[in-house]
Design brief:
By secondary structure, this protein is an alpha+beta fold. It has 2 domains: 2-66, Complement Module, domain 1; 78-111, no CATH class. Helices cover 14% and strands 26% of the residues. It contains 1 helix and 8 strands. It has one helix at residues 2-18, and strands at residues 25-28, 34-35, 38-39, 45-48, 52-56, 62-66, 78-82, 89-93. The chain has a 4-stranded antiparallel beta sheet, with helices on one face. Strands 2-3 form a two-stranded antiparallel sheet. A two-stranded antiparallel sheet has the order 7-8. Strand 5 and strand 6 (62-66) form a beta hairpin. 10% of the residues are buried. One of its GO terms (molecular function) is cytokine activity. Belongs to the beta-microseminoprotein family. Keywords: Chemotaxis, Cytokine, Disulfide bond, Inflammatory response, Secreted, Signal.
Length: 122
Amino acid sequence: MAGQWMMILIGVSLWTTCSAAPTECHFNSQALCEYEGKHYLLGQSWMEKGCIQCTCLHPFGVGCCETVQQPVDFPPWCQVRVESVTCKVILVLTSDPRLPCIPGDENNVDPSHGDMNVKLAG
């Protein structure tokens, strides 16, 4: 009976940790509740590199979830950039990553070909 409650606790902990961005999660029963020299107690969370949020489920292990949901449908001249500090996902132009890439019907021309948004009189 105690084992069932622990599995429920683990499931709820992982769900609440990852509910902000439904992405991939994993559980490691061998992992220690430690990151970059800091020890964590049951229920405490920390952010690992790559925008991975982990929760201490000691003595059962560590549960971790990605916090960034990668876009999957964007033009080939755009690329995904994840800001490591804020974990914010933005699309930028492949040809100039300083500029945002805004996909849509009115922005459907590859910017590497110059200004092709010329309207022809008809």
